[in-house]
Amino acid sequence: VQLQAFGGGLAQPGGSLRLSCAASGGTLDYIFIAWFRQAPGKEREGVSCISKSEDITYYADSVRGRFTSSGDNAKNTLYLQMNGLKPEDTALYYCLNYDGGWGSWGQGTQVTVSS
Question: At residue 9, does pLDDT exceed 90?
Answer without folding.
Answer: yes
